[in-house]
């Protein structure tokens, strides 16, 4: 199976061909995948070099000119390093665009902590009116990329698409808006985000819980959570592939009129200095199926 990032360039290349408003801005990373597109659309495929603040600023400049910019690099260089440019160049000026990251929380451990970004979604959450998409499969990544870039979403909409090498075995029918009900039960609700769905399904096998699948995490589908919880007291577990607790406030807001408890599971704040492999990071943060089963079961008890 190809990865989400493998799918990214061909999808956006087709969008460049289909829509003369679409433009791509790169900072060296990913440029080889857009060589043909750069020849076909030299004015709409721009590589600014290793200049991440300029990367975001140039994307905003293209938006000012009426284009729909797709801005791409690793998450730590796309969200954390040029955060001021995201806040001011896009947000303050009221411009739309699509930020597409790679490497997720720890997808390239060999790159070290400079290439890890478990806090990206939490950081984006401090800004107004950004949609955040976290696909769990390459097919879902294609759907959500098209949803984010499509002219029908409006040229002033702002979207962040978070790609990962981690993926579920099978795609789900995502629509860019709603949570999906994957399993129903009566003892609690577990919200699995993006590539953690398979781990959550394995962890909750045989447990009497509802499992919701989230790939659009902002706006947060509070209505789906309320329907799953019902009118009675509720226990809710959020399992996110980024900083633990990122969506607990959103869940609390959705359930403000219902007695409830919320447990936020995700990537811890501590830096793991023995970089190792992706699967070792997953286990170290307690996001493998065995660890999740123990943590979810203890909370529900």
From TrEMBL:
Signal peptide annotation: none
Gene3D superfamilies membership: 3.40.50.920, 3.40.50.970
One GO MF term: magnesium ion binding
Domain Transketolase-like pyrimidine-binding, chain residue ranges per copy: 2-171
Superkingdom of this protein's organism: Bacteria
PANTHER family per the UniProt record, alphabetical: PYRUVATE DEHYDROGENASE E1 COMPONENT, TRANSKETOLASE-LIKE PYRIMIDINE-BINDING DOMAIN-CONTAINING PROTEIN
Protein name, entry field: Transketolase
Organism expressing this protein natively: Streptomyces silvensis
């Amino acid at each position: 199976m190809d990865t989400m990032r493998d799918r990214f360039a061909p999808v956006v290349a087709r969008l460049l061909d289909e829509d003369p408003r679409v433009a791509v801005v790169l900072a060296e990373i990913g440029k080889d995948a857009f060589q043909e597109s750069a020849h076909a659309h030299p004015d709409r495929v721009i590589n600014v070099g290793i200049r991440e603040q300029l990367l975001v600023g140039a994307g905003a400049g293209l938006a000012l000119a009426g284009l729909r910019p797709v801005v791409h690099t690793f998450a730590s260089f796309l969200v954390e390093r040029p955060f001021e440019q995201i806040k001011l160049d896009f947000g303050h000026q009221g411009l739309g665009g699509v930020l597409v990251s790679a490497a997720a929380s720890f997808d390239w451990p060999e790159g070290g902590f400079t290439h890890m970004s478990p806090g990206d979604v939490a950081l984006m959450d401090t800004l107004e009116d950004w949609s955040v998409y976290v696909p769990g499969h390459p097919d879902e990544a294609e759907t959500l990329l098209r949803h984010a870039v499509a002219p029908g979403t409006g040229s002033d909409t702002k979207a962040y698409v978070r790609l990962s090498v981690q993926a579920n075995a099978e795609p789900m029918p995502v629509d860019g808006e709603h949570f999906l009900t994957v399993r129903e039960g009566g003892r609690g609700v577990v919200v699995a985000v993006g590539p953690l769905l398979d781990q959550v399904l394995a962890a909750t096998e045989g447990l009497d819980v509802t499992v919701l699948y989230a790939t659009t995490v902002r706006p947060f589908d509070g209505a789906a959570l309320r329907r799953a919880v019902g009118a009675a007291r509720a226990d809710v577990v959020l399992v996110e592939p980024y900083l633990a607790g990122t969506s607990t406030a959103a869940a609390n807001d959705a359930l403000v009129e219902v007695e409830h408890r919320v447990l936020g599971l995700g990537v811890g704040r501590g830096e793991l200095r023995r970089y190792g492999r992706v699967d070792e990071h997953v286990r170290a943060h307690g996001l493998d199926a065995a660890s999740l089963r123990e943590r979810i079961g203890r909370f529900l008890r």
